[in-house]
């Protein structure tokens, strides 16, 4: 174990600079991260997950037209005053929650040069300490403590840690993909190679990277020297491949937690709709009535052609 393994992770970089083109025209003026999942914007679920894992120093890497995201995590004096005057304390508490979640900072990415470049934009804020990276498209169920487990693994071993899920082999071209070796504990493996969005025939495995990382600060120097890769962008996957081959005393080594819990993807329209339904049916305040309506609605659907 190297000395960096015992440094506590205090900061998280959340990248939200994307244009959200899959959701146009809804995202023409509204960041995709602010689209509601039931009654909270998707990004609030991510921030709440970070805070629950003990990471209250939060840096958003943003882009143009993200002002509504910043406003969401700020005070809304007029709204709060109106709710207080009406005596609507339940909604007032929910409105205030988003502004007291953590110590939130912002930096703009500027040029859209890929996820690796977005992470690099956090270098000045993070400094020389390990840090987490979270992507706003992936929501992890509150009953499954993925990020906390990743932080524990990084504390034990040092280096960097990624989260992997098993996907259908035909879907590996949608993800960064990892080759791994077994480690001494269940669902924790050593990463030996990484490929960004490989052809299924060339994929090293069906283990795909999802949007949770805990990185050694050496990642910043690696990213500075990582040339543009797939899509002519600086790929975080390429930097992680370099880190995996570096010696531990230089911040190298990449381990992975294989996640088998509940993950909700809000990255495209179909998955976004599924996520909203899945979370709504499990809500104690909405679920019973919504499930009953959903059963009736599905039962009344006409059969598809050919069935």
Report the total helices. Answer: 11
How many distinct folded domains? 2
- The structural class is alpha/beta
User: What's the total number of strands?
Assistant: 13
Gyration radius (Cα, Å) is 20 Å
| Helix content range | 25-40%
CATH C-level class of the largest domain: Alpha Beta
| Lateral strand order in the biggest sheet | 5-4-1-6-11-8-12-10-9
Q: Write down the secondary-structure element order.
A: EEEHEHHHEHHEEHEEEEHHEEHH
Features:
23% strand, 307 residues, Spore Coat Polysaccharide Biosynthesis Protein SpsA, Chain A, disordered N terminus, two-stranded antiparallel sheet, alpha/beta, 2 domains, nine-stranded mixed beta sheet
What does this structure look like?
The structure is a single chain. Helices cover about 35% and strands about 25% of the residues. The protein is of the alpha/beta class and about 300 residues long. It folds into 2 domains: about 260 residues, Spore Coat Polysaccharide Biosynthesis Protein SpsA, Chain A, CATH 3.90.550.10; about 35 residues, no CATH class. Strands 5-4-1-6-11-8-12-10-9 form a 9-stranded mixed sheet. A hairpin with a 2-residue loop joins strand 2 and strand 3. Helix 3 runs antiparallel to helix 4 and helix 8 crosses helix 9. It is globular and about 60 Å long. It starts with 10 loop residues before the first strand and ends in an 8-residue tail after the last helix. The N terminus is likely disordered. It comes from Phytoactinopolyspora mesophila.
